[in-house]
Design goal:
The complex is a heterodimer. By secondary structure, chain A is mainly β. In chain A, about 0% of the residues lie in helices and about 50% in strands. Chain A is built from no helices and 11 strands. Classes of the chains: A mainly beta, B mainly beta.
Chain lengths: ~120, ~110
């Protein structure tokens, strides 16, 4: 079945780094744009980053620009989020989500279960 | 980036109709999509584009848009519709995504 499974979350100190992965199955991963979305404890959803189907363009929220990098390996059906210079305010559940489009930010029709990232000393 | 504004909370009597709204300048250029999130679960897409429902979403959910406001309407709300609802769209540049702050729907 169509599925996204995130991994790589954990506890990291401020200033540290973490890489999240999102394994896709059940659909043609290389045809669709992919997003990362996060949700701080008790808060709303925040869009983080988007990558086009072929990795040709990447877009970031202002809050993570210059610190986070989204990438994908279509041969492995996997999406990544490299997070550097982590701050306490990055503490959240991180979801990967599939776009209905390959090219543009339209809507997220498939979501993973999320992985928790905690930034704390 | 631009913002999307939602009412924090809305209530509706069982079986009645409720409209949840989302306001933002970027909605004059881009469609909103709507997500339902229940406690401890990942969000679920309920409406996208002009008024499209993914497979499995009941037809009591519908969407509309006028000017800078997008709306999600639930006609005949059910107890299982009690959840948080978020709108999403692009910002005015078209390059960044943005979510509304969310609306907590209570079904009385």
């Amino acid at each position: 079945q169509v599925q996204l499974v995130e991994s790589g979350g954990g506890v990291v100190q401020p200033g540290g780094s973490l890489r999240l992965s999102c394994a896709a199955s059940g659909f043609t991963f290389s045809s669709y744009g992919m997003h990362w979305v996060r949700q701080a404890p008790g808060k709303g959803l925040e869009w983080v980053a988007f990558i086009r189907y072929d990795g040709s363009n990447k877009y970031y929220a202002d809050s993570v620009k210059g610190r986070f990098t989204i990438s994908r390996d279509n041969s492995k059906n996997t999406l990544y989020l490299q997070m550097n210079s982590l701050r306490a305010e990055d503490t959240a559940v991180y979801y990967c989500a599939k776009d209905i489009s390959g090219w543009s930010h339209d809507a997220f029709d498939i979501w993973g279960q999320g992985t928790m990232v905690t930034v704390s000393s | 980036s631009s913002e999307l504004t939602q009412d924090p909370a809305v209530s509706v009597a069982l079986g009645q109709t409720v409209r949840i709204t989302c306001q933002g300048d970027s909605l004059r250029s881009y469609y909103a999509s709507w997500y339902q999130q229940k406690p401890g679960q990942a969000p679920v897409l309920v409406i996208y584009g002009k008024n499209n429902r993914p497979s499995g979403i009941p037809d009591r959910f519908s969407g509309s848009s006028s000017g800078n406001t997008a709306s999600l309407t639930i006609t005949g709300a059910q107890a299982e519709d009690e959840a948080d609802y978020y709108c999403n769209s692009r910002d005015s540049s078209g390059n960044q995504g943005v979510f509304g702050g969310g609306t907590k729907l209570t079904v009385l």
